């Protein structure tokens, strides 16, 4: 299982993720988010960092803004977390790998939700339905719904995952579960990670999968 730590706003946290051999670092480019990366971390700093895949998270941004940010920050992947259309995903995917995020509530119709996005994305990400919010709530949805996921299209699991959820997470038998995405439950405050918690989480995940 791959690991993505999202909401990075500091160079020192990014460097620690590389030391810990985390697979993906997420940078949020949504101005309404308290973890808005563009106002907190220098584009050149991110662009020149190597040893980790850099994922830009966007919410209903213009295609021009997404493509410009990919170049400025040297992004390897884009996570589209708003109401982006399949055509929008396809256009961005011509440049980088695309993760399309979907918010899951009390129940889910997988085909209606996902079918149109299957050909134009590389991964899905499932986060918790949060009304008008676009993630970052620290709440999780009912993971039992994932047992009905009918596709092989790989996905990231997000939403309210902390150290307490690790044992349950490691017991999930989901062939398409590619990566886990953590954020708010590993923070001192928005955008400031508790790197000791991050290290403990990574150790638990890696020790299980490296056995």
From TrEMBL:
SUPFAM superfamilies: Ribulose-phoshate binding barrel. It is an enzyme of class 5 (isomerase). Pathway: Amino-acid biosynthesis; L-tryptophan biosynthesis; L-tryptophan from chorismate: step 3/5. One of its GO terms (molecular function) is isomerase activity. Its EC number is 5.3.1.24. Residues 4-203 form the N-(5'phosphoribosyl) anthranilate isomerase (PRAI) domain. Pfam families: PRAI. Keywords: Amino-acid biosynthesis, Aromatic amino acid biosynthesis, Isomerase, Tryptophan biosynthesis. It catalyses: N-(5-phospho-beta-D-ribosyl)anthranilate = 1-(2-carboxyphenylamino)-1-deoxy-D-ribulose 5-phosphate. Belongs to the TrpF family. This is N-(5'-phosphoribosyl)anthranilate isomerase.
